[in-house]
Amino acid sequence: MVARRKVAVVGVALSDCGRVDDATPYALHAQAARRALADAGLDRSLVDGFASAGLGTLAPVEVAEYLGLRPTWVDSTSVGGSTWEVMAAHAADAIAARHARAVLLVYGSTARADVRAGRRTGTLSFGTRGPMQFEVPYGHTLIAKYAMAARRHMIEYGTTIEQLAEVAVQARANAALNPEAMFRTPITVDEVLSGPMIADPFTKLHCCVRSDGGAAVLLVAEEYVRDCRTSPVWVLGSGESVSHAAMSEWPDFTVSPAAVSGRLAFERAGVRPAEIEVAEIYDAFTYMTLVTLEDLGFCGKGEGGAFVEKGRLRVEGGELPVNTDGGGLSAQHPGMRGLFLLVEAVRQLRGECGERQVRRRDDSPPRLAVASGTGGWFCSSGTMVLGAG
Questions:
Q1: Residue 131 has what pLDDT?
Q2: 73-94: b or e for each residue (b if 16 or more CB lie within 10 Å)?
Q3: What are the helix (H) ranges across 176-312?
Q4: CA–CA separation, 246 vs 362, rounded Å?
Q5: pTM, full prediction
């Protein structure tokens, strides 16, 4: 039996992000991919695996062709925002099993520019086919699903709207330390609460920004790490899970599929949640951060509201810095943001984050991080535990 190989992330990058009016999604894919390869110091000829979703009719075939790649291993898994954590797990398994030596994950979107140019409208629904036909006629939009789940948590556990607002306030505080964040001006709980109502109980600042942007992550087998210009970040463990499509099939609105994917990831990594020093969590809405913290085991079920108070999520002075770049609530959110979580987690473990860098008591960078993506309306989850080289 051939031994399984260790797998490391050796290249990460973002394309231009935020307000990008003069680029196509393909161009953002290419820009992020070139930057990730340059970050690793490896030539694209080494890449024999490719994963992408969300662009073209035959992704990743079309994107690979645009990038000049001819991969022998591909993945086009598409499960919303958790796509990239799930893809990264598949890529790591493929490399470990010697089905690939280097896998490139790439994403790019001009979601904001397309709306401004009238090429598309704001997405209120995922369509009316299948199980959705029983919900859409009643105005049950994507954001309404999240709002309903948040309200259930508030009723069940006494979570307050002020506690949810704290998630947005602390994300903005972290974004203020990130020169690439789309919104950096500090906000207060009162400002969050006084904003225009989008879907009760969410006002505007409870919701993610709409941006353009792309990201790329390169994973390689352990024998190629010595050829890289960066320190490796090792994939220690991962997990994935799906929950529901129709809200009527969701057993408990206060439990996300991260409760399963997180448990699997931590068990496979041999790591306890208490050992994690940085958490990058999908945050299309403030409630997502709060409930995912519970489900990953950072606090008990129903204790998320109290946990997010008192600045626990901040880079500066926080007990568990969360979404250190400002997250989807303030930094950028060009659609399926899961790949951005992996980029930021790797940069934190490599100590490359400048003013927003999380540091241990001895001033060294953190050693353990978790990235947890959520897809749909808590329909899917992918969680990955990463360790510094």
A1: 80
A2: bbbbbebbbbbbbbbbbbbbeb
A3: 189-193, 258-269, 286-295, 304-307
A4: 48
A5: 0.96
